[in-house]
Amino acid sequence: MKDWTFIVILSIVAMATPLAPILIGRLIGPRKGNELKNATYECGVETRGDTWVQFKVQYYIFALVFLVFDVEVVFLYPWAVAYNRLPLFGVLAGVVFVITLAEALIYTIRKDALRWI
Amino acid sequence: MNLPTLESINLLAVLPVLIVFGWTLVLLVIDLFIPSGRKYWTAWLGILGLLGAAVALAVRFIDARGAAVTAFDGMLTVDGFSLFLQAIFILTAVIGILLALDFLPRHKIERGEYYILLLFTTGGMMIMSMAADLIVVFLALELLSIPLYILTGFARPRADSEEAAMKYFLLGAFASGFLVFGIALTYGGTGTTSLVGVFNQLAEGEPSRDLALVGMALILVGFGFKVAAVPFHMWTPDVYQGAPTPVTAFMSVGAKAGGFAALMRILIVAMPAVGEAWGMLVAILAMLTMILGNVVAIAQRNIKRMLAYSSIAHAGYILVAVSAAQRPEDAPLAVSAAIFYLLTYAFTNLGAFGVVLAVEREDGSGNLLEDFAGLGRSKPVLAAIMTLFMLSLTGMPVSAGLVGKFFVFQAAINASVGNPWILAAAIVGIVTSVISAFYYIRIILIMYMQEGEPQVVLKPALTVALALTALATLILGIIPAPVFQLAKDALLTLVG
Amino acid sequence: MDSLFALIPLIIVFPFSGVVIGVFFGRRLMPHKDSIGPGLVASILAGASFVIAVLMFIALQGHPEGVEVPLATWMNITAGDRVLDIPWTFKIDTLSSVMMLVVAGVGTLIHIYAIGYMQGDIDEQIAKRGFEGDEAFDFKRRRYSKFFTFFNLFLGSMLVLVTANNYLMMFVGWELVGLCSYLLIGFWFDDPVKGVYNSESGKKAFIVNRIGDFGMLIAIMLIFWTFGTVQFDDVFARAECMQAESQEACLTVSAGEAVHEEAEGEHGEAARPYLTPVALGKIGTVTLGVVVTIITLCLLLGATGKSAQIPLFVWLPDAMAGPTPVSALIHAATMVTAGIYMITRSNVLYAMAPISGTAVAIVGAATALVAGTIAVAQFDIKRVLAYSTISQLGFMIAAVGLGGYVAGIFHLATHAFFKALLFLSAGSVIHGMEHGHHHAAHHGHGGDDPDFDPQDMRYMGGLKDKMPITTWVYIIGSLALAGIPPLAGFWSKDEILLDASLNNQLVYVLLSISAFFTAFYMGRQVFMVFFGRARTEAADHAVESKPMMTTPLIILAALSVLGGLLNLPGLHSLAHWLEHSVAHAHTAEFNISIAAISTLLGLIAIGLSWLLYGRKPVEAGQADPLRSTGPVFTFLNRKWYWDELYDTVFIKPYVWLGEFLAVTIDWKFWHDFVHDRIIGDAFRGWGAILSQPIDQGVVDGAVNGIAQLVDGSSQELRKTQTGYVRNYALAVALGVVLVLGFLAFRFLM
Predict the structure, then answer these.
(1) For site-directed labelling of C77, which of B79, B104, C116, C331 has its Cα 20 to 30 A away?
(2) Which has more confidence, C267 or A105?
(3) What is the distance between the alpha carbons of residues C145 and C151, in angstroms, rounded to a whole number?
(4) Do B207 and A2 touch (CB under 8 A)?
């Protein structure tokens, strides 16, 4: 039963942690509303027009491609640091990874995904 | 920590899957330079790659002589079980490509990515059958699922295809969440994600066993979704109906087999210590699945939906075999029955969908049961083949289905000594088989007894696929023993 | 192992590939009306099978003990502590080699003969139906290729039967040849005149054989029950083991040299076999002797069906409705000998059950006599031969029943030669008669007899000048069948009589009498058909058949003359050949007085037939000389009233029982009385409101209720499929709760 005790405690803590600030804030915080405070984005720019505008799908494609190559760095950095201590397989793995990414680049270019229309 | 070396990676043992992935990556580039309208080149090249993988698989099979080895530092296990299932996956993929060859241009959705995605998901399935670590299981599952989500929406302008893809994706992600949570709890309970480690920890009776038990249940939920077990089956009919028919055919066989591969390995290899618990759960799920699948199938008027429910029901029969494997001494027979059933089901179901494809029209209609009326008169051979598939799905003599069911129920009844749950599942299985005869044989009646003018388009590739599946269904039904012997020798092993 | 043995699967691959070719390309092989493509392909494939059989024979010279060549595992089922393991394995030993040679060899000759015969036969049918032009061509193409497809199917099935190494695979072949027999007897099921009779004959053969097959199945099940295997060698090894040991100790015994030799040594004493108890499940224990006796008697029932013995022989005469090559191949030379082969194969079991052996011998001898007497009073040329076949099969069965396996197989082989010869020659005669009939009808003299039957011997006569080759080969065949030295039939029949005289005097007397009748009816037939003057215009205008048909006749005639060389007294080559595979084979030494008596009987019978039919030939319209015997002739002509007897004893009561159940019990009692009177009237008496729902509700509802329940719940459950992802996700979540709840409830608390 020990595990279950922990789980119950964890659940209680997990629920209490977000609930507590909300409740505490509501209980002890002063309520003096003014126009600025009641605005949707209290500390930002007031929105204009309809929020349901359409984005070009290319934004997403660009974002995805960016993400892929961004994450590449995350993987390649430790690889580059430990490079001279890696066995042959480690080197090969990195090479395969880079080739795969390069292929993704070829694919995107060939599919005209990087041309802004 | 020991860094992996070429020896511990053991690339030769996993050569088939490496060929599939490597060739697919190459094919992705080749496809870029194949003009549209000639995409069948991609398809045939894909089949070529699969055949290469099949050769590597055969070499591996002869080389290994039943011995099991690990690869990628214990992350993968290459044993008889995984080799047998990889053979099923390769077969399924080849037939999946053949089914799509004429379908895609006819429906004006011919894009080379279809074949590439199909190969990727096949690779995912192959890894799934070998996964010896929960993390790899999850990776393989995603590798299997994500291309399938895309394939489901492949008939892009069609709303029902897109809707099906969205549903499949959302619910799949939801179910994956449970799986990951289950893996996390198992890790929490045993302190390891490797199946060997889990086995050892559970065998020692660690005090954290309960946590692993909950983890097991959630893993079961995750795979229950993949194999379409009740009550995690709700996506199946909608997705099967909406997806392009070749995808449905492929998915109904491949994804299910992949799910079962990992499920069986986790439950039977790593968790025999809690076998009683999961055995009972699986038996209950099996009963629910068989009853609901078979009963609801009766009410369907759309053949793809009907086959979706039928595929749910068949998942139930395989679950019976899984549940019969709860005691280690019963496991070998039950596992061989399950994988043999998967093989027979693969041939039969792919073939049945092949016939559906032939009758389907360009606008996506032609999937109602009534559309099969008169097929017996206008296309007697096609109707005869469909009759064979329907009889096989029912489990009638001279078809693979009977043999598959026979071995599953035999394994279940063998294992049911002192375990009423398995016996109950077996009995429910037999009774629901009888119910299932109603909707399968209805198709035969409609084909032969009703008047109608079905529009049939039968191109060479589809004909080859139909001939292959029909022949295999017939041969497995008449001389099952050699192949079943292979399934019997395909042992599920714990190596670490 | 000799590498030649590895070729054995081809022996069935060839004929079965012929089936495939016939089904898919048969019609395309026949580009024009007189093309013989399908027949040629089928004959070549049959010949290829024969070549394989010869190769097996050659290979066996070096390995007379025989080999088993596995092809595939057919099924392997674990049932409790026993394994039902049925491989498809070819058994090549001296016995199956003899059968392969006979089946494939005679089969090939008959295939070749049928190439020509079926051309004419189909033309005859076309003329009967009045087909013209394309219709006629299409009909011919369809039927011609169909015939050879069936023929190849038969050959392949028969070879499956004789090459099987276990009882179940043999049973598969056994059933397949039965199917082919049915298909080919009823080949002209759509004949405008005799179609109904033809199809009825096919059905009769099929149904009568079911009774025999029932016996076979029971025997096979009992064999598995007792010995835990169905493979010949293992069954016999275990059977011999069980004579000394308990059942448990023997269930693992497999056929090996040691077991075989040891058991053979013990066989001489045979003191204990009847006392070894055999556990029969939970029923109790019986002794081995009883079980083996039951098994062998059930096998005998199977043999009486397939080999047309009393009491199941009635189908064979009607089977002559099929085309003549079918009668020759299936109903004379090969299929009907399956029973003899099966009993010879099971000789170890029969040796353990002397009662069954005697029963077999008596059945065989009685059949030989009964059928022999019936043949005397028949007028249809093929029917005489049919009863003669039954009679000769009786000889073989009697021989194997007495343990004279060599004699039985010897007679099987020689009989295959001369009976095939006689049937094919009869076919040639019929062909000639039909030709003459057309000629006569064409020229308008006397050919318009509406009752004309080309098979009726009363319409023949004097054919020896018109059809010289046929006449000579027919006479050779007849002499061989009559047992006149030095033709083949003499040697084999003599050996059977010799065995009988040593073992069972009753059987010997019965067989000798039937040998006398055999010679008599063959003499009668020859004199009626070929000698004297033509009794009809048709016979007057008959012509000799084409070389395509007469060549096989000449080859078979040569075999009928020389067949005796197989096992001449003193040499015993067949006996030495068979002793490797038939454990209980034995041969008696030639006895001059037995031979002299049988020869003398044969010659007297032929002389008698010459007195009655040859000296003063029967003229057209004249009654048969035997008519003077009055009721005796009628009795024989009506086949001892067997059909009538069966009609009275089995069929009429069966029909009556069926009608009783249908009319009296079901309709009058159940429907009228129970439903209408008791249920209907009683409820009507209670009131109109109650009666309606209960009458329909109870009776129909019981039947339809389950279906409605399933269908209804199906429709209800279907509604949960809303199409909304949120609902589906909720279902998954609920499922998780259920799973975890169950787990918590069952395993954690």
Answers:
(1) B79
(2) A105
(3) 10
(4) yes
Nearest-by-Cβ selection for A3 from B3, B25, B208 = B208
- Spatial CB neighbours of C143, under 8 Å, sequence gap ≥ 6: C122, C125, C187
Alpha-carbon distance of C427 to C546, in angstroms, equals 12
Alpha-helical runs (H) found in C579-618: 592-609
Q: Mean of the pLDDT values across residues C481-506?
A: 89
- B207 in contact with chain C, both atoms CB, cutoff 8 A: no
Structure-token pair, residue B427: 């009995």
Chain C environment of B487 (Cβ under 8 Å): none
The secondary structure of residue C618, as a DSSP letter, is P
A94-98, B189-193, C187-191, C677-681: which range is least confident on average?
C677-681
Pick from B195, B182, B177: nearest CA to B131: B195
Pairing state between β C277-280 and C284-287: antiparallel
Q: Is B25 on the interface with A (CB under 8 A)?
A: yes
Instruction: Please check whether residue C83 touches B, CB under 8 A.
Output: no
Tell me the three state secondary structure of residue B133. Answer: strand
Per residue, what are the HEC states of C471-509? HHHHHHHHHHHHCCCCCHHHHHHHHHHHHHHHHCHHHHH
Residue by residue, DSSP assigns C504-560 as -HHHHHHHHHHHHHHHHHHHHHHHHHHSS--SSHHHHT--PPPHHHHHHHHHHHHHH
Q: Cβ separation of B166 and C88 shorter than 8 Å?
A: no
Task: Using the structure block, give the residue that is written with the tokens 């309970």.
Answer: B189
Inter-chain CB proximity B481 and C76 less than 8 Å:
yes
How far B284 CA sits from the closest chain C CA (Å)?
Answer: 10
- Nearest residue of chain A to residue B189 (CA atoms): A3
Return the number of other C-beta atoms located less than 10 Å from residue A114's C-beta.
13
| Torsion angles phi and psi, residue B71, rounded to 5 | -140, 165
Which of C706, C728, C738 to substitute to test the interface with B, most B CBs within 10 Å? C728
Distance from CA of C666 to the nearest CA of B (A): 28
Kindly state the tokens that stand for B403. 């043999």
Predicted pLDDT at C748: 64
pLDDT given for residue C652 in this prediction: 83
* Chain-chain contact of C739 with B298 (C-beta, under 8 angstroms): no
- Specify the DSSP class assigned to residue C623: P
Q: Could you tell me which residues are beta bridge partners of residue C84?
A: C77
Residue B63 exposed, middle or buried by CB count within 10 Å (0-12, 13-18, 19+): exposed
Q: Are strands B76-78 and C277-280 parallel, antiparallel or unpaired?
A: unpaired
Domain locations along chain B: 274-491
DSSP-assigned letter for residue A55: P
If you search the block for the tokens 């199938």, which residue do you land on?
Answer: B297
To test the contact with chain C by mutation, choose from B227, B278, B296 the residue with the greatest count of C C-beta atoms within 10 A, namely B296
C509-550 pLDDT, tens digit each: 999 999 999 999 999 999 988 888 888 888 888 888 888 888
- Compute the nearest-CA separation of C41 from chain B (Å): 25
Bin C444: left if φ > 0, else alpha if -120 < ψ < 50, else beta. left
Nearest-Cα distance to chain A for B3, in Å, is 7
Interface B:C, Cβ pairs < 8 A: 99
CB B5 within 8 A of CB B41: no
Asked whether B404 and B341 are in contact (CB, 8 A), the reply is yes
What is the DSSP track for B25-43?
HHHHHHHHTSPTT-THHHH
